[in-house]
Amino acid sequence: MTVALFWPTVMAALLTATLTSASADTELRGVPDAMYLRAENATVTEVLAALSAQFNLRYSPGPSLDRTVTGIYSGTLRHVLTRILDGSNYVIKFSADDIEIKILGNPSAIHPSSAVAVNQKPIASSKITENSVSVPSQIAPLVPK
Fold first, then answer.
1. The domain containing residue 41 runs over which residues?
2. Given CB 3.0 to 4.6 Å as the disulfide criterion, which of 62, 65, 110, 144 pairs with 44?
3. Model's pTM, two decimal places?
4. CATH number for the domain including 29?
């Protein structure tokens, strides 16, 4: 009876391990000037780790890199990085020796300022006449009178 329960448990564990490892996948080929990247349900952190393993790339993992990426990206490394990091606030420093990526944060976490600039002086005075439209007095008419 114990053996009958053992095999289904082993099979379920193997199936779970196989599905978990197959759920996120990256394939990377090429050189910085012409590369190919295929990502399937991989987080941005996993994609950057794959790029870092092949190219001299440094980055700091952060919470804004937890979103998943699925797609095929090709072109220069600069172009692929721009597309992978789309939606994040970041700075990329390219040098002869390496590439450094600084993630500044997630744009949804940054709230725009609610300040509004208001001009306190009136731009032009208006004169209103009967059956006419309000016309600022400082603007010359388009048709001479």
1. 20-108
2. 65
3. 0.58
4. 3.55.50
